[in-house]
Amino acid sequence: MPQTPHVERHFTAGDRVRDIVIGMSDGLTVPFALAAGLSGAVATSRLVVTAGFAEVAAGSIAMGLGGYLAARGDAEHYASELAREEQEIRDVPEVEAAEVAEVLTSYGVTTSEAGTIVAAMRQRPVQWRDFMMRFELGLEKPDPKRALQSALTIAISYIVGGLIPLSPYLAVASAQAALKASVIVTLIALMVFGYVKGHFTGSGPLRSAVQTTVIGSLAAAAAFGIARAIS
Amino acid sequence: MPQTPHVERHFTAGDRVRDIVIGMSDGLTVPFALAAGLSGAVATSRLVVTAGFAEVAAGSIAMGLGGYLAARGDAEHYASELAREEQEIRDVPEVEAAEVAEVLTSYGVTTSEAGTIVAAMRQRPVQWRDFMMRFELGLEKPDPKRALQSALTIAISYIVGGLIPLSPYLAVASAQAALKASVIVTLIALMVFGYVKGHFTGSGPLRSAVQTTVIGSLAAAAAFGIARAIS
User: Fold this and answer.
1) Could you write out the DSSP letters of every residue in B132-177?
2) Is 0.90 exceeded by the ipTM?
3) Burial zone of A164 (CB within 10 Å; 0-12 exposed, 13-18 middle, 19+ buried)
4) A62:B215 CB<8 A
5) pLDDT tens digits, residue range B72-93?
6) What are B46-81's pLDDT values in tens digits?
7) A chain contacts of residue B101, beta-carbon cutoff 8 Å
8) Hey, are the CB atoms on A219 and B107 less than 8 Å from each other?
């Protein structure tokens, strides 16, 4: 397994945080926008709640299963490329040795200097394979447990996010009245979420808060406008 | 810029294809599931169309803008890390030289062999920086035009995907009748889309067709069940 000992990724969040961000940013935005859009077309909250929960069910399953299959696909892709590199090192070592040299010379290392490393690699087929995986193909070994964990984290975050804009419609019978409460509650949630997200991803909390809120507002405004125009 | 001359990524699709897949898989699934869910709760297609179009507007904006900001964020992250590596190479060259050696020795290259490469890097600060960007941090230079292109591709694919399950509701007044047509049309579209997607991503066309169809069906069934239970 490639283990670069001194990785300087100060500014990238962990996988769990990434999955929460993926699920919650869509969960807060799309059900919010759908509910707002329907509030412009129907009078009672009942139907907004029905559509909203149907959307949350559909969205969380689509995103969660989608994330699961993507992670599974990454793991399979890694395994098949690993087997291919092993076979190439066994069957066409000259070609692979030339590839190590090519990688190094593309960074300005001279052919004779690269030759030293190529010779070292040829003594150690396992590290050679790992070197090719990371430096030629740019692949990192995926965590086998990640697929299921990732799916559940994304789905739960989507559901938690989606319940926030829908909650006022559960409490207030008039869709118009619930809309006002939903807009206030969700804009606050988007700002807080954006702020925390910006803190974790290193893109700046305030800027992230503004971006997240703008996306949510634009999506809701577009949905509202379209629903009004059609109905 | 790191240019690995002989990249063997046979099995990864281009960025454009990736964006189409991202937009269309959600666009086919979520509006389909929402429309199916609402068909279990309301009698006329009119309201399904209103909710469906509101969802397509919200989803395409949320996904498109989300993709735009993610791509912009990647570009900014790359630029700030590049500046940091340049500064470190200028200010603490000994530390950075030790890091090059560390990367190489983690692959079984001996310290003295790594020394040759370290000495070569020190003669060429630009390639040295590029080496650190790719091999220590695992970052690749993003295309500056990608953010906008990616946003538009994702949004348009979402809209195109979403129009397929909604089209029967535009033509047939009874939601129940439209639902049947929508299920047939969308399942065919999911199979074709999954097949083509599997071809591009190399995960196997038939398997991908089955997976895509199962996700869409599960999401629609869950949305239908929840909408029925609530209404």
Assistant:
1) IIIIIS---PPPTTHHHHHHHHHHHHHHHHHHHHHHHHHH-SBHHH
2) no
3) buried
4) yes
5) 878 888 888 888 888 888 898 8
6) 999 999 999 999 999 988 988 888 788 788 888 888
7) none
8) no
